[in-house]
Structure formats: structure tokens, C-alpha cells
Amino acid sequence: xxxxxxxxxxxxxxxxxxxxxxxxxxxxxxxxxxxxxxxxxxxxxxxxxxxxxxxxxxxxxxxxxxxxxxxxxxxxxxxxxxxxxxxxxxxxxxxxxxxxxxxxxxxxxxxxxxxxxxxxxxxxxxxxxxxxxxxxxxxxxxxxxxxxxxxxxxxxxxxxxxxxxxxxxxxxxxxxxxxxxxxxxxxxxxxxxxxxxxxxxxxxxxxxxxxxxxxxxxxxxxxxxxxxxxxxxxxxxxxxxxxxxxxx
Length: 248
Known about the structure:
Helix content: 25-40%
Order of helices and strands: HHEHEHEEHEHEHHE
Largest sheet: 7 strands, mixed
């Protein structure tokens, strides 16, 4: 494994940003039960993820080693289990101790939860078929640290595997704690990768104002008329293998 980068203040800054965000936001806004728009976004994201991985040639997640960086309370890892991933092959890395504790409480015991800075995580190079980063890079504002984190994640990926990046594409002028991650930034972070990417997620401020019955039709129709209303991007960033990969 390559040498561990020198200590950085960015992990502490990220933790402070999340603390400010948690204090300012209503948790119900992201509840799949309480918020129809959050549920719509999650279901759309899972369908897109499934399509990307099926096109990649993965007809089952059984036996695939996967790690999520910034796993929060474990919702995405739980989704992977429901899609057929083996709990013993899953790992979550989480910077915030309270969120890591929630993930440990909610997920099967076989899932490994590792608290702390992801750059220090003891993951062997080439050991993971997929590394997930869901709304992660948008909270990492230091360019050097963001680049180092992407490089470390790339080291963990086995040839033929990839990094799954889901993040919003533009910044929020009312929130200086986040920064948009457009496709060109994903390309910069993972040079030489094969990238399949698509726009997703009806703009949350708009989606939250729509009646639940209109959410699915609006998510299907509005982007065709006004593409900018899809504010996020799901990218499957593939590490080339010695043999040609199927197109995704």
C-alpha cells in the first residue's frame, strides 16, 4: 500500500460542516417515510444504479466486495443488501462517530463499520469491486484532500471494478459548506477511467413542493423540457482491466 498522506485539517472541517448542516436542517426532510420527495429520489437512484451495474455485466451482487466512504447511518449499505449484496462483503467508512454508531446499530453484524478518516482506512489495494461515494465529494472543499481521497479510493478498486459517485452538479449559493461536482470534476478526480454517467434527481426544493401524486410524472417529464431541474449525477467510474469491459 502506498504511504499514508500527511495529516490534513480537512477531515475536521468536513465534520464541522456536517454538524452545521445537521443543526440547520429538518431530519424529516430526508426521511423515506415522512418525505415523498426523498423516497422518489431514492427509488430513482436505485433503479439507475441497477441499470448501470447490469450494463456493466453484474447480474448479481453476491460475492462482490464493496465499501462506502461516508456511509452515514447505513442507508445505502442497507439498500445494497436488499439488492443482493453479502453483508460480510460490505464495509462502511464514516468520519462522524455518532453516525458510525447508528450504522453499527442498524446494519447486520457482518457489515464492517470503520469510523474515522477514510485516508487512514486499512483497505488493501485492488480488494474492492466497488467503492461508493454518495454526496461525499461535494462536502470536501479542499482540492488537495479531495484529490488524495479519490486516489486512495481508486487504489482500493480491483481492475474491472469501479467507483460509484452520486453528487449534485452545481453549488448552492446559500450554502458555502458544499461545492457542486460536475462531470468534468469526476473526470479530473479519476483520470483514465471509463465513465458512464447520467443526470438524476428532480431538484429537491421543487420536488418538496409537489403533491406526492405528481412526483413521479414530474420527474419523468420535466427534465425533457428543462434539463437543469435534474440537479444530481450518478457516475460509474470504471478501472480498466486487462480484458475489454462491456460497454455501460
